[in-house]
Amino acid sequence: MSESSTAHAALPRTVVHLLRHGEVHNPDRVLYGRLPDYHLSTLGRQMALLAAKHLADHDITHIVSSPLERARETASPVAEMHGLPVTLDERVIEAENVFEGLQVAGGQGLLKHPALLVKAWNPFRPSWGEPYVELAARMKAAIDDVRAAARGHEAVIVSHQAPIWTVRCAYEGRRFLHDPRKRECTLASLTSLTWVGDDLLSVSYSEPAASLLALAQPGAGA
Asked: What is its EC number (predicted)?
């Protein structure tokens, strides 16, 4: 082994898992965004438990969650299995969205609100909500703090689809412009970031709740 390889192997390995919450009870199919009182469905709680079991034998030392109910409820079984508290962090909350509270699933619902169509003119920013650059920046700041706290171990951050996908794009050097329907970030999925020292070694993706995804109801994401 070369001297550089030996030095690299001696550096601490730190993993931060970005866990998306499970299915939400949302029978009216509204874009709930940051609205309060949107909780996991029965299926969503099962998804959260599968994610927790998947992480049960990992060296988790820190758990952080978005303050929204669905994220906290997803974090709970992970915390219980590892005997750890959950720290709430506003920086990993859902993205702001002007369509919050409306039935706009798939974008077609916008036709019912023509006055808001002007907000959809620029998908690069996006014009309907929090700029991707700002979303990625706040997620990165939260991840950096968790990575420092868990250095040499593993940590979990429970967040939402848009923040997780956007920060993944930032780490991988992808363009922020994308079709939200094609995000690789299903319910209760894990986007795992691995560092050796301060160098990002890899970004991996897994779906602990894959067996339950076909049972999820439309409009239960975000």
From this structure: 5.4.2.1
